Fold this sequence. Notes:
6-stranded parallel sheet; 8-stranded parallel sheet; 9% strand; single chain; alpha/beta
Amino acid sequence: xxxxxxxxxxxxxxxxxxxxxxxxxxxxxxxxxxxxxxxxxxxxxxxxxxxxxxxxxxxxxxxxxxxxxxxxxxxxxxxxxxxxxxxxxxxxxxxxxxxxxxxxxxxxxxxxxxxxxxxxxxxxxxxxxxxxxxxxxxxxxxxxxxxxxxxxxxxxxxxxxxxxxxxxxxxxxxxxxxxxxxxxxxxxxxxxxxxxxxxxxxxxxxxxxxxxxxxxxxxxxxxxxxxxxxxxxxxxxxxxxxxxxxxxxxxxxxxxxxxxxxxxxxxxxxxxxxxxxxxxxxxxxxxxxxxxxxxxxxxxxxxxxxxxxxxxxxxxxxxxxxxxxxxxxxxxxxxxxxxxxxxxxxxxxxxxxxxxxxxxxxxxxxxxxxxxxxxxxxxxxxxxxxxxxxxxxxxxxxxxxxxxxxxxxxxxxxxxxxxxxxxxxxxxxxxxxxxxxxxxxxxxxxxxxxxxxxxxxxxxxxxxxxxxxxxxxxxxxxxxxxxxxxxxxxxxxxxxxxxxxxxxxxxxxxxxxxxxxxxxxxxxxxxxxxxxxxxxxxxxxxxxxxxxxxxxxxxxxxxxxxxxxxxxxxxxxxxxxxxxxxxxxxxxxxxxxxxxxxxxxxxxxxxxxxxxxxxxxxxxxxxxxxxxxxxxxxxxxxxxxxxxxxxxxxxxxxxxxxxxxxxxxxxxxxxxxxxxxxxxxxxxxxxxxxxxxxxxxxxxxxxx
Length: 704
């Protein structure tokens, strides 16, 4: 009788397992439940029912069952490997690593465990470890060279290390039938990315076109849209992003990209509705607490509050599994300061910070630079490199390697100069390679990341009353937070006629990026032009960006202004760009995202800047700069006053000249352009952070 019951139990499990294998999951789960009702210690039923719960997204319940199966029998390596998969899905990276180690300890040739280990290491930005694990997976099993998932993970690991040619070779070994993922997008998507990295953009476009002819996948369309954008085919990029949102309305990446692209090219039709969808998505994130693909940087130039910007930053930061802070004795004597950025070249950040690196007091500080961006061969790049005690060109390095270098250098305070902007090395910061980590200059908002300890601002951009909207502890520098280089060179002034400017008309300029120019800002500018005859609005774009220029001219015509009164300057080398400000009578600022580097550029050359103070960090920067140079009358109390001041200034040439003369007389001696003074304030802030660290506390810091 006992043998009969045992045989029935075996048959019942085999039937359940067969149903499971045939995709009849509901029936299989019900039968597993029947088995467990009779025998709660049936380890295989616990294991496989746990896998079904995992597939249904019920990770906590799945973990309970599979852990219970291992309590009964802890020997099956495949059960440990599957438990690791569930841990990974639930975001428990450390537990997953432990489960995979247990699996491989029991069966060192278990290829699936090596494969899962490679995936986990990729998630943790350990590309070197992922490569080793993928190669071990390929060495396991009878069909060692026919493991498409292992070859795919190897390609991913090589790609993350900047080894694009080797990654393409590995990708060639992947089964073209798409056996590596749940869809056919993964392989052509990665192949296109690798070809782009090798500057083979035509080949990448061909790969994406061919793949999209077979499968209309959102990820491939997004990738093709980004490639079109990089090739300056904005119309094609817009079309692909729109197509994604039609087929997949909740696709956050496409929504983010489309909103920002439309702002960049001044395509404002339907923009407000998209911005509302973006904002609603952020509020939904607040409700659910999920990670997000809604880029927080794009949100800064949308109507948004500080609290909403924090929600967006926190959701974006959840994509990184932050390492635990490591306790470390700070350096004896001088502090070791590391600056991390992809913008240490001819870029706004490089322009502002080069003097900081040069001016640091070497008696109290040792200064390290970690560059993840290009070497553009400019004189500014050479100055930046020379300004550090040690400079690491980490282009193409994966995050773990950079973090290891920072630890090996014994950095006490690591300063992120990028924040949530394009090509940001945020993954390095998430690995917490330094005991104190700081956000400065590159991102005018909270990052919402637990791995950033302090944010450096000032009393205007980050008043302590706003602390609740920042995940970082606020640090206030005296005057303006913005470091400036007092060695900026201004080029030769070009001929006014050659620039397309009128001989005697009043020139309003705004050399901000076009994404900061929203329809409400443009409305205000057109009212100003309407009331100041013969005045022009001077904007800056690429010389070949006819798409954006035509959009802006059309918007002027819609508002009743002759499009010829909107004049465009071409982008150019920095010194030549600065010289343009000699022909500008008044810089008109934007909102909700102000002029930042462009405002200090204008002030350096003696061009007055008119702004209106906002509620967010990004909308208060120009007010900070104007306060530091003593031009408080150019901070308008609201948009009405802003328009009135612009009209008054443009209508009274004597007033305009007096304003410019007063600025030119004092600006170079102001605190804003005293590089040494601001450097000493920053150093005082670093010492205060170090002192708090030594005493085990963290609280707001004010430097006087």
